[in-house]
Amino acid sequence: MSIFSSRKREKILENYLESNSDKLYRLAFVYVKNKNESLDILQDSIVKAYKNINKIKDMKALEKWINKILINTALDYLRKRSRIVYCDDIFKNIELIEDNNSELIESVDNLPEDLKTVIILKYFHGYTINEVSEILEISVPTVKNRLHKALNFLRKEFKEGSYE
């Protein structure tokens, strides 16, 4: 376990946030599909991170810890708003997926939240299965199971849909 003073922890957090703000914004945006709401979620997540910085046991796990805070904040936001978020042409405004495959984005958006989250972390952000497991605090077999279900759903969607 790394022992850092509160000020040192805050400085490490500050440096991480400065270097990764775009990545964190894109992660929030994947959930709410709105620039202002994404910025609100990012801001709320940063406040939560600063308030709880002394609770993190290993500063090497800072990235996973912040991603978990951001994902939970986004999901809480969606639950509170109790609204359905539809994927639309707004993805053209960001370079989240280079080929801008709107059918794929829409299909991922239609997945249940637990399946959608593992797909986003694994394929949109490039985390390994073990890292996804740590971020979501679920077992590796659960991550694999959710990935399998999500990929089967997406394959079925593309075979049956007009995306061929």
From TrEMBL:
It comes from the Bacteria. Keywords: Sigma factor, Transcription, Transcription regulation. One of its GO terms (molecular function) is sigma factor activity. Residues 18-83 form the RNA polymerase sigma-70 region domain. Residues 104-153 form the RNA polymerase sigma factor 70 region 4 type domain. Transmembrane segments: none annotated. One of its GO terms (biological process) is DNA-templated transcription initiation. The keyword DNA damage does not apply. It holds the Pfam family Sigma70_r4_2. Belongs to the sigma-70 factor family. ECF subfamily. This is RNA polymerase subunit sigma. It comes from Clostridium paraputrificum.
